[in-house]
Amino acid sequence: EVQLAESGGGLVQPGGSLRLSCAGSGFILSSHAMSWVRQAPGKGLEWVSGISHKGDSTYYADSVKGRFTISRDNSKNTLYLQLNTLRADDTAVYYCARDCWSCGFDYWGQGTLVTVSS
Amino acid sequence: DIQMTQSPSSLSASVGDRVTITCRASQDISNHLAWYQQKPGKVPERLIYGTSTLQSGVPSRFSGSGSGTEFTLIISSLQPEDVATYYCQKYNSVPLTFGGGTRVEVK
Q1: Which of A44, A104, A110 has its CB closest to that of B46?
Q2: Is the pLDDT of residue A15 over 90?
Q3: Which residues of B touch A3 (CB under 8 A)?
Q4: For residue B29, is it left (φ>0), alpha (ψ between -120 and 50) or beta?
Q5: CA atoms within 13 A on the CB side of B6
Q6: Do the chains contact at A103 and B50, CB–CB below 8 Å?
Q7: Does residue B80 contact residue B59 with C-beta atoms inside 8 Å?
Q8: Of A23, A31, A93, B89, which is most buried by a Cβ count within 10 Å?
Q9: How many CB atoms lie within 10 A of CB B63?
Q10: Would you call B32 an interface residue with chain A, using a CB distance cutoff of 8 Å?
Q11: pLDDT (0 to 100) of residue A87
Q12: pLDDT tens, residue by residue, B4-47
């Protein structure tokens, strides 16, 4: 069974940093591109960042470019998102999602909450 | 970047009603469109991909159509368990933008 499990969320002060992880199981992570999607409280879905299956190409939404870094360790079947220079409007549930090769996101994790507040 | 615009932003319909949600892309995205359902307090789930291909296990009352810049999600007979917010998403190129969502309620 394919599963994605995020971790690393929490409360952080403005300007601070966090590193989110997404552990995959039941499939070979290196076979898929992956993305992070976030959802601010009461708001819609926002695609944040994506990475190719090999990790050699990365992509970012304008809202996080230069502050967030996506990476992956295929040997550990794990996806990461480094969040730096955090702002209050980065407060959201962050989901990792598996890209099913040009057919959208077929599996999502349960999400991890990031709260940016002083 | 291509913008995705959904309408309406919310709707309320009776059980058994036909419900139509529209998603418009600001540029041609061919058929590279997916629909997701997010029930209250739950994780989003893919309903449809490739504009019209139903995810395995999704009831046949859901259908998708369109091409290019205009797409439609139809629920042919609304059920109480369909209460959710529905999102379209383009995936032809990055950014993989979502529409703003359509909240569906039952009267």
Answers
A1: A104
A2: yes
A3: none
A4: alpha
A5: 27
A6: yes
A7: no
A8: B89
A9: 16
A10: yes
A11: 98
A12: 999 999 999 999 999 999 999 999 999 999 999 999 999 999 99
